[in-house]
C-alpha cells in the first residue's frame, strides 16, 4: 500500500516526536558493531526529516541522546558524537535552504567543545527560519526538563516577574524547551519497546502513541506515513465525549 497517497494532507499532526530506537539490535542482527547501526540510523534521520518537511509537519522532535545514554560504553558515545558532527556539517546547508529551524532540547553544553561550537553555529544560522522546527533531544530527559522549568519559574517569582496566580498549565509551557510550539500530537516509537523513556513528559499529555516492531534503521519514509495514517484514523477526544 502507498501510504503517502492515503494521507489526508489537511489533517497532518502539527508536532511529531520520534524515539529513534533499535540501532544496536539492528547491527547485532547483522553481526556488526552497534556503531554500524547508529550510522544507518542517521540515514533514516535525513529521510524522515525530508518526509516530514514534504507533508508540512510544523515541529519534528527526534530523541537522539538521552540523559541516560551516558551509561553506554565510552567508545560508543564517542562514535555518536562523531555522527552528530557529521550530520550537522553535511546537512546544515540543506536545512538552511529549506527554511528549517534547528532547536536543541537538553543541556548540550556538556558535550565536547567542538560539538558545542557546531551546534551553536547551527542554532544561530537557522534561528530565523520558520517553515519547520527540527527539535533534537541531546542530553535530554523529560523529568530534568520539568525540574529545570520549575526552577526558572521560582527565579521569576523571586524576581517579581510573575505572580503565583499566573502559574498554570499553559504558562508552564513557556519554561519548556519547546516554548511556542504545539504540544505533541503523535509519538512514534519503533523497535517494539512499549514505553516513553523519559521523552517529552509534559508535552505528551494528550499525544497519540504509535508503536512499531520495526527497528529504527528500517523505519523508512513509508513507515512514517503509515504511522500518520493510523493517527488520522483515531478520534481524539481530549477527555471529552
TrEMBL record:
Binds 2 magnesium ions per subunit. Keywords: Magnesium, Metal-binding, Transferase. Its EC number is 2.5.1.-. Substrate binds at residues 22-26, 34, 38, 66-68, 70, 72, 189, 195-197. The keyword Magnesium applies. It comes from the Bacteria. GO terms for biological process: polyprenol biosynthetic process. Transmembrane segments: none annotated. Its cofactor is Mg(2+). CDD domains: Cis_IPPS. The active site is at 21, 69 (proton acceptor). One of its GO terms (molecular function) is magnesium ion binding. InterPro entries: UPP_synth-like (IPR001441), UPP_synth-like_CS (IPR018520), UPP_synth-like_sf (IPR036424). Mg(2+) binds at residues 21, 208. Homodimer. PANTHER family: DEHYDRODOLICHYL DIPHOSPHATE SYNTHASE 2 (PTHR10291:SF0), DEHYDRODOLICHYL DIPHOSPHATE SYNTHASE FAMILY MEMBER (PTHR10291). NCBIfam families: PRK14830.1, uppS. Catalyzes the condensation of isopentenyl diphosphate (IPP) with allylic pyrophosphates generating different type of terpenoids. Belongs to the UPP synthase family. This is Isoprenyl transferase. It comes from Peptoniphilus harei ACS-146-V-Sch2b. The lineage of its organism: Bacteria, Bacillati, Bacillota, Tissierellia, Tissierellales.
Amino acid at each position: 500500500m502507498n501510504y503517502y497517497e492515503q494521507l489526508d494532507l489537511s489533517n497532518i499532526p502539527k508536532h511529531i516526536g520520534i524515539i529513534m530506537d533499535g540501532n544496536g539490535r539492528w547491527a547485532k542482527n547483522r553481526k556488526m558493531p552497534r556503531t554500524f547501526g547508529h550510522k544507518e540510523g542517521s540515514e533514516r534521520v535525513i529521510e524522515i526529516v525530508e518526509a516530514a518537511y514534504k507533508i508540512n509537519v510544523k515541529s519534528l522532535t527526534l530523541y537522539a541522546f538521552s540523559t541516560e545514554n551516558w551509561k553506554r560504553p565510552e567508545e560508543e558515545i564517542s562514535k555518536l558524537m562523531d555522527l552528530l558532527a557529521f550530520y550537522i556539517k553535511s546537512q546544515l546547508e540543506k536545512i538552511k535552504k529549506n527554511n528549517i529551524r534547528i532547536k536543541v532540547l537538553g543541556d548540550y553544553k556538556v558535550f565536547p567543545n567542538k560539538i558545542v561550537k557546531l551546534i551553536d553555529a547551527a542554532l544561530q544560522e537557522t534561528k530565523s527560519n520558520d517553515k519547520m522546527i527540527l527539535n533534537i533531544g541531546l542530553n535530554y530527559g523529560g523529568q530534568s526538563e520539568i525540574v529545570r522549568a520549575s526552577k526558572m519559574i521560582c527565579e521569576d517569582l523571586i524576581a517579581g516577574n510573575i505572580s503565583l496566580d499566573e502559574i498554570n498549565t499553559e504558562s508552564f509551557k513557556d519554561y519548556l524547551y519547546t516554548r511556542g510550539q504545539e504540544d505533541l500530537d503523535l509519538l512514534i516509537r519503533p523497535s517494539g519497546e512499549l514505553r516513553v523513556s523519559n521523552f517529552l513528559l509534559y508535552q505528551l499529555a494528550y499525544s497519540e502513541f504509535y508503536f512499531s516492531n520495526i527497528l529504527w534503521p528500517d523505519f523508512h519514509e513509508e513507515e512514517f506515513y503509515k504511522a500518520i495514517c493510523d493517527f488520522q484514523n483515531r478520534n481524539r477526544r481530549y477527555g471529552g465525549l
